[in-house]
Every structure is written in structure tokens, then in C-alpha cells.
Amino acid sequence: MLRLFAISLSSLIFMQSINLHFNDLVELDELVGHYQFHSDEYGDNFLIFISKHYGAQKTTHSQQHQEEQQEHEKLPFQHQTQCSQLLVFVEDHKPILESRSEIPVAHLDNFHYQMSYSTIWGDGPFQPPKQA
Fold first, then answer.
1. 55 located within any domain
2. Residues near 90 by Cβ (< 8 Å), separated by ≥ 6?
3. Is 45 in contact with 36 (CB distance < 8 Å)?
4. Digit-coded pLDDT (tens) for 111-130
5. Residue 52 in domain
6. d(CA 9, CA 16)
7. DSSP letter string, 73-90
8. FRET label pair with 67: which of 12, 19, 49, 127, CA 20 to 30 Å apart?
9. 23 is in which domain, residue-wise?
């Protein structure tokens, strides 16, 4: 049951991401019927039919065939959507996790450094740490 729910939810998210609505799936029979009309009446293949209704020939086809306007409005994938997203970034100078404990934090050092009197170290760039 959990797998079925996960598959249906992921398919719903996928369909929405490619802008495919449930109404478009219901209206597929209108698409097939109108394609058969174009195939019988004008001799169009499927690619020319798609070009006339969704592609480059859409404006010329709609101007030449005003009588089919009601049928064209019933075809799927005719909706227009706009997506706008607002991104907000807030930077605060206060730390998010602020320690409010009253217990003092004690640091115990587990090393002892004693300065050697050897001249091997000198004042060069490779000095051992004096305090950590």
C-alpha cells in the first residue's frame, strides 16, 4: 500500500512538473476524434495535425478555419500557465544556535610546552606552537 501511494504521488508530481493536467488526459478522446476528422477531410498525417494545432501553423489554421474554433477549444494542452517564484534570503548577524547555559565551559589542556634553549629553531618561519 505504501509503494502504491509513493508511485501515485511521484507520478502526480511528475505530471505537474511537465505541465500535464488530469483534464488533458480526459480530453485525449477529443484529440483523437479531431485528428480523424483532419485525416479524413484534409489528408493530414499526425505531425501536420500537431503543427496545425500546437505548432508553427497554428495561427494560419485558426484564421482559415473559423468554423472549427469550438472544436479547437476542446482540445487538450490548450491552457497557459505562468510560474513565478519569490526567493528571499535573510542574513542575520546573530548565531542561530546560541549557548544559554550558565555552566562555565572549562578547557583542560592535555599538553605542556617547554621552550627549548636550542638554537636549532631560531626565529625562522618553522616555529613550534607556543600556546594553543
1. yes
2. none
3. no
4. 666 666 555 555 666 666 77
5. yes
6. 11
7. HTSSS-------------
8. 19
9. 2-73
